[in-house]
Amino acid sequence: MLRWSIAFLVIAIIAAVLGFGGIAGTAAGIAEILFYIFIVLFVVSLIFGRQSKG
């Protein structure tokens, strides 16, 4: 999921440089949402991973 977030961020940067503001904004929004989902899933996996080992 982090790879998808980085890919959309790169797409947003390229689109912004080329002058496609709408596409850049949409891609940046998708990248941000995917990044937050990644962070939540990462924290959940850390919490449940520690509980099963203890």
The total count of helices amounts to: 2
Helical fraction equals: over 70%
User: What structural class results from the helix and strand content?
Assistant: mainly alpha
What's the story with the biggest beta sheet? Answer: none
DSSP E strands, number: 0
How much β-strand is present in the residues? Answer: under 5%
Order of helices and strands: HH
Identify the overall geometry. Answer: rod-shaped
Head-to-tail CA distance between termini: 28 Å
Overall pLDDT level = 87
Radius of gyration: 15 Å
Oligomeric form of this entry? Answer: single chain
> Any low-confidence stretches, pLDDT <50, length ≥5?
none
Describe the structure.
The chain is mainly alpha-helical and 54 residues long. Helices cover 93% and strands 0% of the residues. It is built from two helices and no strands. It has helices at residues 2-18, 21-53. Helix 1 (2-18) packs antiparallel against helix 2. The longest helix is centred in the last third of the chain and has 33 residues, at 21-53. The chain is rod-shaped. The mean pLDDT is 87.
Q: Layout of SSEs?
A:
Blueprint: H1 2-18, H2 21-53
Helix pairs in contact: 1-2
Summarize the structure.
With 54 residues, this protein is mostly helical. It has helices spanning 2-18, 21-53.
Task: Spell out the key features of this protein.
mainly alpha, 54 residues, single chain
